[in-house]
């Protein structure tokens, strides 16, 4: 599973946040795959405004989503995809973190046992 950070226009960011927009249309220059995580970072200016000279400034708002579906073809220009996105279920990440902490506790116990001898 990979993680990608994507610039997102203010109005579009809000629509995703409100649950109105559950997809992204992106050029697939990153090799997106189902299960990958995307971090949407809201920009102060739109992509069009930045092409016209406005600077890239982030607002500080961001959210994490998971790619649940990828559509290519069907009239999309070559290289472009529609990414179905859903809320990231952080359960697996929490489990992995707990497992790592558990392993660290086991290692710590081993060190304590050696010291006690």
Automatic annotation (TrEMBL):
Pfam family, one: DUF3850
Residue span, DUF3850 domain: 5-85
Gene3D superfamilies associated with the record: Hypothetical protein (2.30.130.30)
UniProt-recorded name of the protein: DUF3850 domain-containing protein
Organism: Acinetobacter johnsonii
